[in-house]
Amino acid sequence: MSRVHVFFNRRPTIRIRPSAVHLHSVRAQSTEASRTSRLDRLTSKLPKRLQKYTNGLRDAPVSHVVSFMILHEITAIVPLFGLFSLFHYTNYVPISYVTDHFGESLQGGIERYERYFKRKGLFGFGQEDNSDTSASDMTNQNAHVENAVQRWHNGEQKYKILVEVALAYAITKVLLPIRIIGSVWATPWFAKILVRAKSTLTRNA
Fold it and tell me: What is the pTM of this model?
């Protein structure tokens, strides 16, 4: 009987390889560092007086940080496509206003999306379009923007799309402080939705 008693009271020994624990720890630290780095890049774009609204995210739960990142992407994508659709399907294209007030952002949008469209061959752009812009235009950024706008005025369809996308990009970029503050405000609410959805999916699985 004593032997039986001893046999059933023996507890199995669980051995965890130190390498697996270390690997998990390293991955967790890397993910956390990546989130923090990206959060720092986003919040650094805010004026100093507005950064106080995002300081709490540094010590927030992971669900809040992830929610903020998702909301930030949504507030970038939705205005970009919404404004482009407005400009493309209506006669409202505020080039003069945006050029006068947000010329630097418009310039950045034209340069960014023209390179992207050429690289991908979208909307009639191609590598051969590099010859359309003279060397002086490439060094004079204002002339480069004026060239794109002029070709839009001339009715070139591909430049119509380029300028409209650049306008939407410029306005979306200018709205960055409002987008970040709005994302911070909605983060707790959105985090609850994500946690609830994750719990539901886990139960169903």
Answer: 0.72
